[in-house]
Amino acid sequence: MAGDPQQPHRYYSVELPLSAESKTRLREKLCEVEGPWQSEADFRPHLSFAVIRELVPDVDQLRDIVSTLAQEQAAFHIQVSAMGVFPGRRPVFTLTPAWHSRLLEVHHWLSDRFSEAGITPIPYYQRDHWSPHITITMGRPRREVAAAMEGLSRVWWPGEYCLDQVELVEFHPARKLLQLPLVGNDD
């Protein structure tokens, strides 16, 4: 994907959000503890499978790959096993799913399609470097994130959540370009 150096870079992500029922259950659990949770309208817990940084990407090509993923992959459940923070200027509070073959299958499927199309996700999302995580909140002050983690560590619970959609998101700010149900067979 080539671009015009005069235009700013855009970021795109391929995300599998939690199902509506899973999102509601998770939000109820998180709200038992005071924390930097976004407003209900902005609460978008999701598992990112790829982030792509390009000048002027072929968005239609990204849409085609995401559409094919929705047709070929079925909804599946994940088990949350831990929580954590990606540090930095804009810390990201996350939940960590237990390793599951479906996570790897979907990520490898997507990595293969991107490779065939000449698309390179940023290094953290490439095949050998990906760390699956459910983004809960980002960009909040460190003290708020630390307090939330302290509170959650007292009431932590393992949970099973469903991923039943795929989204193509352009950011910052976040704007959904495509949202489709996962309708493939479970074979």
- Total of helices: 4
How would you classify the quaternary structure? Answer: single chain
CATH topology: Cyclic Phosphodiesterase, Chain: A
Largest sheet properties: 8 strands, antiparallel
- The first-to-last residue Cα distance is 33 Å
Mean pLDDT reading: 87
Q: Unreliable stretches, pLDDT < 50, 5 or more residues?
A: none
Biggest sheet strand order reads 6-3-4-5-2-1-7-8
Q: What is the CATH homology-level superfamily? A: Cyclic phosphodiesterase
- Tell me the helix content: 25-40%
| Name given to the CATH architecture | Alpha-Beta Complex
In the CATH scheme, the class would be Alpha Beta
Order of helices and strands: EHEHEEHEHEEE
**C-alpha Rg, in Å?**
17 Å
Strand content range: 25-35%
The structural domain count equals 1
Number of strands: 8
Q: Could you say which structural class the secondary elements and strand pairing correspond to?
A: alpha+beta
Shape: globular
